[in-house]
């Protein structure tokens, strides 16, 4: 029996910025329905690792396989580069990213934001895209905000809108880069609720977050990074409740 | 119709030449400006160097000198080329540098350099996160430019473009030097023949003013369009 394709696999990812090696060989495998959470102090490389997966950063070494398709690289004098940018674009369309600062396109209404990539990248018809977008906006509780511009919405609304934009691609994997870090505390809950909903529905998600309680709740796997190395990895009950290293214990300790 | 001692129709034809010249030059200048801005923001040092050389040269040499260099120099260059063709391949052609084309190219080249600076600032004013989102959703560089960077940077570029356009419009008056019959040249000829400068120069001034006023109105419309989504947040935010 043929195995179902693995949505995303990263093997031995290394990344240098100048002389500083940010990622020292990190691997990860996301099976369908997995929710993998990356935690670690700032500077541990967790966001860089996430950004390597959709090639917003180019990994210097290592392999990326998305849904059985291996991304090809070629050597240049400035280091490694994707061999075929068309392939990268195709792969990125399967890996929707949700950003810390939302990054909704500010010259478009919320609805236009959600249909933009489906229409222009996936080549759906405008009508189909709009129908799907309205259903998604309804799901994240923003149908009445469809014609608002991002500047007319709160941070929490923008982030839920950004999640609707990500869902509109019907992605293989969703990448969340500290989705609640830029939000006022009282707005975090609504965004986490939407994300929990997605996890329950069986979406494959990779998430960088500081929300440890949320990570414990929804993750199938937690990865603790320290200085570009995986220090601990496993089920949330093991990693978060029974940390083996002193460093992780200190990281998880409540801060005053 | 106003007759102006028989010069009225010719003056209107001249005004049409002015408008055509200005609009075509503007289009060329915008294209060159976008290319120049991209070149100057490029990490490739050769491309960057070409962009810098172009803007330095053009901005440092008087418009009139450049225009004559291009018009006469261009004709000499083309003659040399066609001579070579004749001797080498026995192909006999004669290309005359058209004053209108030379005018468009010169004015386009000059203002392309100024537009380049305008666009460079506007490019940089677009938040990196906006383009990052475009890339992250699988847009090709061209699509991301068309759908995201261009509409966002226009907001910042429009005041500069409007300013350049006003100066460009008036610079078209220089083309009468290379023999193009724009409205300034018609008026100058009419003044020489009739010794009545005000009769011709005041209508010319009024026509420039009319074009400028119409452009202001057009730019105000464009500014409004590219400002969509910015400002006016207070009344909606809840």
Automatic annotation (TrEMBL), chain B:
The keyword Cell inner membrane appears for this protein: yes
InterPro entries (alphabetical): AA_ABC_transptr_permease_3TM, ABC_transp_permease_HisMQ, MetI-like, MetI-like_sf
Protein name in the entry: ABC transporter permease
Intracellular or extracellular location(s): Cell inner membrane; Cell membrane
Membrane topology listed for this record: Multi-pass membrane protein
Domain ABC transmembrane type-1, residue spans: 15-219
Chief location of this protein within or outside the cell: membrane
Keywords: Amino-acid transport, Cell inner membrane, Cell membrane, Membrane, Transmembrane, Transmembrane helix, Transport
Regions crossing the membrane: 15-39, 51-73, 93-114, 156-178, 198-219
């Amino acid at each position: 029996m043929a195995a179902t394709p693995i949505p995303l696999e990263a093997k031995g990812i290394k990344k240098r910025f100048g002389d500083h090696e940010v990622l020292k060989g990190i691997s990860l495998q996301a099976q369908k329905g997995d929710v993998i959470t990356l935690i670690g102090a700032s500077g541990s490389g967790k966001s860089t690792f996430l950004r390597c997966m959709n090639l917003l950063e180019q990994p210097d070494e290592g392999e990326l396989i998305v849904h059985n398709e291996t991304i090809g690289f070629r050597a240049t004098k400035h280091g490694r580069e994707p061999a075929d940018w068309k392939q990268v674009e195709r792969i990125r369309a399967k890996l929707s990213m949700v950003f810390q600062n939302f990054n909704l396109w500010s010259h478009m209404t919320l609805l236009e934001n959600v249909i933009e990539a489906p229409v222009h990248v996936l080549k759906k018809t405008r009508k189909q895209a709009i129908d799907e977008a309205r259903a998604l906006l309804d799901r994240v509780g923003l149908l009445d905000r469809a014609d608002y511009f991002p500047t007319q919405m709160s941070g929490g609304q923008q982030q839920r809108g950004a999640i609707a934009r990500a869902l509109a691609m019907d992605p293989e994997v969703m990448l969340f880069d500290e989705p609640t870090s830029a939000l006022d505390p009282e707005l975090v809950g609504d965004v986490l609720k939407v994300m929990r909903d997605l996890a329950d529905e069986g979406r494959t998600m990779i998430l960088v977050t500081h929300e440890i309680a949320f990570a414990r709740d929804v993750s199938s796997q937690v990865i603790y990074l320290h200085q570009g190395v995986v220090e601990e990895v496993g089920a949330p009950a093991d990693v978060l409740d029974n940390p083996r290293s002193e460093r992780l214990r200190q990281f998880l300790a409540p801060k005053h | 119709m106003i007759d102006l001692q028989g010069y009225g129709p010719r003056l209107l034809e001249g005004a049409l030449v002015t408008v055509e010249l200005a609009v075509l030059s503007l289009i060329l200048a915008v294209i060159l400006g976008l290319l120049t801005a991209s070149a100057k923001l490029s990490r490739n040092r050769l491309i960057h160097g070409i962009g810098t050389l172009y803007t330095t040269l053009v901005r440092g040499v008087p418009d009139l000198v450049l225009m004559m260099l291009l018009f006469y120099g261009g004709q000499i260059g083309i003659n040399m080329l066609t001579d070579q063709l004749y001797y080498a391949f026995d192909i006999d052609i004669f290309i005359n540098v058209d004053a209108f084309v030379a005018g468009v190219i010169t004015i386009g080249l000059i203002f392309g350099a100024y537009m380049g600076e305008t666009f460079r600032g506007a490019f940089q004013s677009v938040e990196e996160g906006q383009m990052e989102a475009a890339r992250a959703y699988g847009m090709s560089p061209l699509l991301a430019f068309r759908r995201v960077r261009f509409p966002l940077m226009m907001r910042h570029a429009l005041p500069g473009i409007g300013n350049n356009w006003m100066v460009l419009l008036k610079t078209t008056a220089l083309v009468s030097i290379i023999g193009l019959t724009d409205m300034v040249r018609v008026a100058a000829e009419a003044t020489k023949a009739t010794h009545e400068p005000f009769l011709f120069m005041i209508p010319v001034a009024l026509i420039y003013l009319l074009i400028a006023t119409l452009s202001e109105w057009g730019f105000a419309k464009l500014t409004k369009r590219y400002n969509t989504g910015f400002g006016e947040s207070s009344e909606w935010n809840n």
